[in-house]
Amino acid sequence: MAPSPPQTWTADIGLRIRRHFALKVIGVTVFTWLFFIGYFHMLRHPDFAVTVMPLTALDHLIPFQPQALAAYFSLWLYVGIAPGLQLSFRELVVYGLWVGALCLTGLGLFHYWPTQVPLAAPTSDFPGFALLQGVDAPGNACPSMHVAVAMFTAIRIHDVLRHARTPVFVRLLNWLWFAAIAWSTLAIKQHVVLDALAGALLGIAFALPSLRWRPGPQRVTRAVLGRADIIPHR
User: Fold this and answer.
1) Tens-digit pLDDT profile for residues 118-156
2) Could you tell me whether strands 51-52 and 115-116 are parallel, antiparallel, or unpaired per DSSP bridges?
3) What is the pLDDT of residues 75-94, one digit of tens each?
4) Rounded to an integer, what distance in angstroms lies between the CA atom of residue 125 and that of residue 21?
5) DSSP string of the chain?
6) In a domain, 143, yes or no
7) C-alpha 15: how far from chain center
């Protein structure tokens, strides 16, 4: 019997997206909704004195760019990609536990050390900007959970793309998207540099252990008539 042809990276990624698709969409939506309940409660009802984050020289050099709001909002699409690429139900659940621990840690930091950016934030008539400032007050600043979750997502997406043997440009696009999100937090003045750096470190602190303590990552070896054989990575 002739050996099966090697599985292409596009078929691998396609199968990952299709598996448990409805569960992934519902899970990410519910998880985000629950996070925002805690986030906005702490934003509006801090239990301790609020610290104003200092500006660095780099903050003064970064111009206000309201058009970066598009990249800022794109996080809510970006964060669904990594869980969407988990192949098995067990991988998906463990991924959720890790990112849940990340978010709970961030909320805990906001509770015991509430922070905010300087209040003199610029205004703009760019579409959606007034809505953002009306809903998301300048609190819960450090660490930037926008950057923390984006960093966690970028590392986990890169891991899947590497195992699927995607072309380098696909992996580069992943990191460019992360960079755009991180930059946007500074460009629209929702965060300062120290917030973004702390967020990046928080994301790394959870992403790297999540790659070690998880179910053995799996890959698709071949697909025949809509069925796929899955074996652990070596």
Assistant:
1) 876 677 777 777 777 767 677 899 999 999 999 999 999
2) parallel
3) 999 999 999 999 999 999 99
4) 37
5) -PPPPPPPHHHHHHHHHHTTHHHHHHHHHHHHHHHHHHHHHHHHS-SSPPEEPPPPHHHHHSPP-GGGHHHHHTHHHHTTHHHHT--SHHHHHHHHHHHHHHHHHHHHHHHHS-EE--S------STTHHHHHHHS-SBS-SS-HHHHHHHHHHHHHHHHHHHTT--HHHHHHHHHHHHHHHHHHHHTTSS-HHHHHHHHHHHHHHHHHHHHSSSPPEEEEEEETTEEEEEE--
6) yes
7) 22
Q: What is the reported pTM? A: 0.88
The sign one gets for the Cα dihedral 34, 36, 40, 46 is positive
Residue carrying structure tokens 């111009």: 63
Our CA angle for 125, 126, 132, nearest 5°, is 90
pLDDT for the residue numbered 216 = 64
Rounded to whole angstroms, the Cα distance separating 109 from 114 reads 7
Residues 108 and 163 sit within 8 Å (Cβ to Cβ): no
- Residue 158: CB atoms within 10 A of its CB come to 19
Amino acid 123: pLDDT: 74
- Domain extent at residue 68: 21-217
Whether residue 205 is contained in a domain is answered as: yes
> Does residue 225 lie within any of the structural domains?
no
Residue stretches of the chain with pLDDT short of 50: 2-5, 221-231, 234
Per the structure, the count of domains in the chain is 1
Residue 209, in any domain of the structure: yes
